[in-house]
Design goal:
With about 650 residues, the chain is α/β, with parallel strands linked by helices. Among the domains are: about 150 residues, Glycosidases (TIM Barrel), CATH 3.20.20; about 200 residues, 3-Layer(aba) Sandwich (Rossmann fold), CATH 3.40.50.880; about 60 residues, Golgi alpha-mannosidase II (Immunoglobulin-like, Sandwich), CATH 2.60.40. It is built from 17 helices and 29 strands. The longest helix is centred in the middle third of the chain and has 29 residues. It is globular. Its EC number is 3.2.1.23.
Length: about 650
């Protein structure tokens, strides 16, 4: 890995006969597929009876693919335990929040924490790794498939026992837990860890601490399961290991990728939601900063199941989706799936070939991606994504807090994506970074929608500010403690003291008629908000109308060489959007952010850096065409012609590569 770009697909040879497999390999070569992912749902084919393993079919497939120039990412099949595991054993199965026990079928029906599941999963992983780990065709591994995609926190007896052990480790004594959670409320007081329930059925809402901590417990346990599989694989194979995840799932991605070798994501965003596609690339690039990420799954045309379907991509979109991924740091662009499934719950899903072996509606677009990959590969391999100057923190732990305290169905993923979209549309090159990210190289840091900020994060952000950075915090950030309770010293705890502000009160501003003025624009304010007492030097945004008239909703506090900006409320509507853009523009200018362009909405610039030169990938994502102003003379790498500085027009679903020396 690392010496070329990959164009791949998920493949399920266990579902097809030898004639079809031969036909598939011929077609893969025609479509420029140079890697496939296999094995992820094939546990029953590999271990048809408990303890009887047969990997010969998969060994032969890997070797046959390799002989034809197609490499393999081998998967562990643990999302789909066979019937011998499930039948007659409800105690091994996943239990949902309402107490329903899952039956066999679909996937993720087992509790991944059950000791017998862990034992059998370790054995199948070891057998696969032993058998295929040294084959030259295996260039990578994928653990399981989409952890916690259909399920979230399991409520079985195994999980209950592990939950109590986890609490003991975390709190040491039940008194500490009672104090941290404030359990005297509603007579929730516990006398032993064994009495602490799971957040299952209840007449009203559970204690916030219980609900959030159970999510964090579940996230930690699935990451431990991933770690265990990786450890087994490494005994038999030196190929790098990943997992195909998403911001949709009930996992902590930062924690999962911590002990894996490269990061991968799955996304099925349709064209009208292309920023949701791009945010994945800007985030996954930062889970493993020194190596390319993989787009492990995206549809060649449309996603579908027995219950739903999405709109097919317009012709031309798939190619620019791939161009954007590679330009933003992807090493691979892969489809789900190669050949349409003839059975099961995803039989209508988009694919490269139909179940009867004919090209599908997305086929021509796959050929375009193959041509694109060949054209841009030398440029991608001689450059790396430019260091962004603006970062937005994304937090799956923050997602857990917001799932517990969602107010009006707030969702961390969609809130951050919406916030991100504004910065994207302003032509600013940006990184989306996990909570633990190194802040070196950034000039502006945004931390929105994270109820709880750790002391460690605040310390790193403070250091970033003292060195000259501008830290913009909020809205809805810092108002809760580590245990998901309200601070009792001041509204935002340690953050408030660091930010040099005084929060007078917090309340929901939606539908309250509150209007705030900042950067010469008045806009309605919404969401749960913090209102600040500030003087003329520190106040940047003032409430003009509403319950807190005359008080501040945006403040500045100088610290060392930089400043902390508190955004206490979310400006809403068209004027709110404009006000937020003005805020972003103002602080980007002040911080001297240079890596930005005047690219029109719907088109992006992905800058890359080479040795003594840079390349702008200018890509139209929305199919409406666009333009950008080139800051200096450049060379169009497709036509090898000199382009003068000034306006450059981009056609519908067009991409250009402009080199600046």
């Amino acid at each position: 890995m690392g010496k070329k770009l990959y164009h791949g697909a998920a493949y399920y040879p266990e579902l097809w006969d030898e004639r079809v497999i031969e036909e598939d390999i011929i077609e893969m070569k025609k479509t420029g597929i140079n890697v496939v992912r296999i094995g992820e749902f094939a546990w029953a084919s590999m271990e048809p009876e408990e303890g009887k393993y047969d990997l010969s079919f998969f060994k032969n497939i890997i070797n046959k693919l390799h002989e034809n120039g197609i490499e393999t990412v081998m998967c562990t099949p643990t999302p789909t335990p066979p019937i011998w595991y499930s039948h007659g054993h409800p105690e091994r199965m996943y239990v949902d929040r309402d107490g329903k026990v899952m039956g066999h079928g679909s996937r993720q029906h087992a509790c991944t924490n059950h000791p017998y599941f862990r034992e059998r999963a370790a054995l199948i992983t070891e057998n696969i790794a032993k058998e295929v780990g040294s084959l030259p065709g295996v260039i990578g591994w994928q653990i399981d498939n989409e952890f916690k995609c259909h399920v979230s926190e399991c409520m079985c007896h195994t999980c209950k026992d592990l939950w109590h052990l986890w609490l003991k480790e975390r709190y040491e004594s039940v008194e500490n837990l009672n104090e941290a959670w404030g359990t005297k409320i509603w007579s929730e007081y516990y006398h032993s860890f064994e009495q602490v329930p799971q957040p299952g059925p209840a007449p009203f809402l559970h204690n916030s601490s219980l609900h959030t901590m159970y999510q964090l417990f579940s996230m930690e346990k699935i990451a431990e399961f991933s770690d265990g599989q990786a450890e087994i694989i490494r005994k038999y194979s030196s190929a790098p290991i990943t997992h195909n995840s998403s911001v949709f799932f009930s996992v902590d991605n930062e924690r999962i990728f911590k002990n894996l070798d490269f990061a991968s994501f799955d996304t099925y965003a349709t064209i009208e939601n292309y920023p949701a596609y791009l945010i994945n690339s800007d985030l996954w690039r930062n889970f493993k900063k020194d190596r390319g990420f993989w787009v492990m799954e995206t549809s060649p045309s449309y996603a579908a199941s027995l219950a739903s379907y999405a709109a097919p991509h317009p012709n031309g979109y798939l190619r620019v989706e791939a161009a954007a991924a590679y330009a933003l740091g992807a090493e691979a662009f892969c489809y789900w799936l190669w050949r349409q499934q003839r059975a099961g719950c995803e039989q209508p899903h988009g694919s490269v070939l139909s179940a009867w072996g004919k090209p599908t509606v997305g086929y021509e677009n796959v050929l375009e991606v193959a041509d694109l990959k060949n054209e841009i590969e030398p440029i991608i391999l001689s450059t790396a994504p430019s260091q962004a100057e603006v970062a937005i923190t994304y937090s799956d732990r923050g997602k857990a807090f917001l799932k517990t305290e969602s107010h009006r169905n707030l969702n961390h993923r969609s809130l951050v994506t919406d916030f991100y979209k504004r910065i994207l549309n302003m032509g600013i090159h940006r990184d989306v970074v996990p909570e633990g990210a190194d802040l070196e190289g950034y000039k502006v840091l945004f931390t929105p929608f994270i109820h709880y900020l750790s002391s460690e994060y605040i310390a790193r952000a403070r250091e970033f500010v003292e060195k000259g950075g501008i830290w913009i915090v909020g809205p809805l950030t810092g108002g809760r403690t580590e245990n998901h309770t309200v601070h009792t010293d001041c509204a935002l705890g340690e953050l408030e003291k660091t930010a040099g502000v005084e929060v007078l009160y917090t309340f929901p501003m939606d539908d309250s008629g509150t209007v705030g003025r900042a950067f010469d624009i008045s806009a309605p304010l919404g969401m749960w908000s913090s209102v600040f007492e500030a003087n003329s030097e520190t106040s940047v945004g003032v409430i003009e109308e509403g319950l807190a008239k005359g008080k501040s909703f945006i403040t500045e506090h100088k610290l060392g060489g930089g400043k902390i900006v508190m955004l206490g409320s979310l400006p809403i509507g068209e004027s709110g959007d404009l006000q937020l853009q003005k805020l972003v523009h103002h602080y980007s200018e002040e911080a001297n952010v240079t890596l930005r362009s005047d690219v029109t909405q719907g088109t992006i610039v992905a800058p890359r850096q080479g040795d003594g030169f840079s390349v702008w990938f200018v890509i139209n994502m929305d199919g409406n065409g666009g333009s950008v102003t080139l800051p200096q003379q450049g060379v169009d790498l497709q036509t090898n012609t000199v382009i003068e500085p000034g306006k450059l027009e981009i056609g519908k679903f067009e991409y250009k590569m402009i080199q600046f020396n």
